[in-house]
Amino acid sequence: MSNHACPLCQTNNTEFYIQDKRRSYWQCQTCDLVFVEKKALPSTCTELNEYKLHENDAEDEGYKNFLSRLAIPLLDALPLQQCGLDFGCGPSPVLAQILEDAGHEVAIYDPFFQPDESVLTRKYDFISCTEAIEHFHNPHRELELWHRLLKSRGWLAIMTKRVLSKERFINWHYKNDQTHVSFFSEKTFNFIAKQWGFTLHIVTADVVLLQKNSIY
User: Fold this and answer.
1) Using one digit for the tens of pLDDT, what is the confidence trace for 112-167?
2) What structural domains does the chain harbor?
C-alpha cells in the first residue's frame, strides 16, 4: 500500500487535503476518510507516552458523563443481558463497568493496556469503541475484525468527533493530537455501513450506532 492509499477502503483514489505545521493530510474520494500519510504515523513509543497522559478515572463523574453519551443510546438499543466487547478501553475500562452495571457481560481489549487477544476469538452482541478509532493506523483491519466478531443483528457503537468540512478541519484542535491519524465524516460512516453490511444510526455529533444486517 502506498503512502497515500486509503487505510479504510484501501483504494488509491485519494487527494491531498491540507498541510499543517507538523504533517500533511489526505482525503479518500471513495469513502471520504481524512488520514495522515504513512511516513507521518506516530511510533508505538510515541503513542504509549501520549496515552499514559490521559486521566480516565472511574471515580471522575465528568468522565462518566462523557461516556454516557455513547452508553445511554447503546443501552437503549440492547436487549437485556447481552455479551459485549469494549475495544480500545485504555488503562481504566470505565465504559465496560457502566455497561456491566446495567446487566451486561463485557470483555475488554486494548493493544497497549489490555492486550489479551483471546477475547478477539469470541462472538459478541455488541462492540463499543470510544475515542479510539481516530488512533487506528489501519481502520480497515479493525472493521474487518469487528464485523467478524459481531453476531447477526449485533451493535457497533463508536464515539469519535467527525470531519465537517475542510475549512473547519484547518483550525480543528482534534487533529493536533499527534496520535489522531484517521478522521471520519458522516459520509465515511455511510460508506462503512454499505461496505460491511450495517444499518447506520447517527446519534449525536460524535456518536454513531451501526447494527449488523442479518444477511451478513
Assistant:
1) 999 999 999 999 999 999 999 999 999 999 999 999 999 999 999 999 999 999 99
2) 14-212 (3.40.50.150)
